[in-house]
Amino acid sequence: MESLPRAVKMDKTDRALLQVMQDAFPLVSKPWLEIGRKLKLKEGEVLSRVKRLFKEGAIRKVGPTLDYRKIGIGASTLIAMKVPSKRIGEVARTVNKFEEVTHNYQRDHEYNLWFTLTARDEKSLQSLIEIIKKSTGIKNILNLPTIRLFKLDVRFNFE
Amino acid sequence: MSECEKLARIAKLDENDKAILKTLQSGIPLVSQPFAEIANKLGVGEEEVLLRIKQLLDKGVIRRFRASIGHRQVGITANAMIVWKVPRVRVEEVGRKMAEFKEVTHCYERRIIPGRWEYNVFSMVHGRNKKMCKDVAEKISEATGINDYVLIFSEREFKKTGVRIIDS
């Protein structure tokens, strides 16, 4: 569990680099060279900037995001819990222990703990929910699976 | 493959595809020729790795291949889950409109639980601060005519990982 990380120092070139890196990554033998061409930077400079941004956490990784429905993996859902405020840390830690939990946030609402769950299939997902309810002792939960996805495109504006 | 075929089919992955996806889960190495390095590790050729990634993209198994940004590290500290009560007949139209806003990163229709939870559309908005998120919510409300909504800000990030590919 983390307190707010400090914002990374970035110059104009770093920002331009981050902007470009949110686009489709060049699937070529020397991708950094190609990115460098777009930004008029040498391959070496692109790489050293990327490594610094990675070290600071501004870039988490470069890689694929998968559509799990396409590989027939599983069922997922969003769970909201109403947790007594003095128990929030402890309950969050218990929930985090499950590797099927991918995102877990405290939010300012009477339902104050929100997390996403992914399991092999619907049956496993339902058992997992019951196990989580038992381990945390929290019965007041909302199970809010997706009916329809309209958008999933996490990108930010750096300009 | 047409869009319909792509959507209908569950893609078959062979052992090489799975091996490549597993290796890529932690991201590409930050070296001049990252795909050559991955190919070396797997005992296949660089061309093969690149070709398979492109095929997986084409099949829709890979949705996107790009950098994921640490939003808090870049000063995007406010994260609002905006939940909306949208009449069922308008969900499709409203959902599409919300998706058009560049500030909206996620937009879903979710199940409701009558009597306990009635907000059926969720849109995630990130911003430098809470005011920016509220301004976006107002813009969306105006554009869609939906006035019954709540901004639920995140206060603490307890966990944020990707889904690990489950071994079948």
Brief summary:
The complex is a heterodimer of chains A (159) and B (168). Chain A is of the alpha+beta class and 159 residues long.
SSE order and pairing:
The complex is a heterodimer of chains A (159) and B (168).
Chain A: H1 12-21, H2 31-39, H3 43-56, E1 59-66, E2 75-81, H4 88-96, E3 101-107, E4 113-119, H5 122-136, E5 141-143, E6 146-152
Antiparallel strand pairs in A: 2-4, 2-5, 3-4
Chain B: H1 3-8, H2 15-24, H3 34-42, H4 46-59, E1 62-69, E2 78-84, H5 91-100, E3 104-110, E4 121-127, H6 130-144, E5 149-160
Antiparallel strand pairs in B: 2-4, 2-5, 3-4
Helix pairs in contact in B: 3-4
CATH topology of the largest domain in chain B: Alpha-Beta Plaits
Could you tell me how far the N terminus lies from the C terminus of chain B, measured between alpha carbons in angstroms? 26 Å
Strand line-up of the largest beta sheet of chain A = 3-4-2-5
Quote the average pLDDT of chain A.
Answer: 92
Give the amount of beta strand of chain B, in percent: 15-25%
CATH architecture of the largest domain in chain B: 2-Layer Sandwich
Write down the Rg of chain A: 20 Å
How many domain regions of chain B? 2
Order of helices and strands of chain B: HHHHEEHEEHE
Helix-strand makeup class of chain A: alpha+beta
Please tell me the CATH architecture of the largest domain in chain A by its name. 2-Layer Sandwich
| Helix-strand string of chain A | HHHEEHEEHEE
Largest sheet, strands/sense/barrel of chain B: 4 strands, antiparallel
CATH class of the largest domain in chain A: Alpha Beta
Q: What fold name goes in the CATH topology slot of the largest domain in chain A?
A: Alpha-Beta Plaits
Order of neighbouring strands in the sheet with most strands of chain B: 3-4-2-5
| Helical percentage of chain A | 25-40%
The tally of structural domains of chain A comes to: 2
Note the gap between the termini of chain A: 30 Å
What is the C-level CATH assignment of the largest domain in chain B?
Answer: Alpha Beta
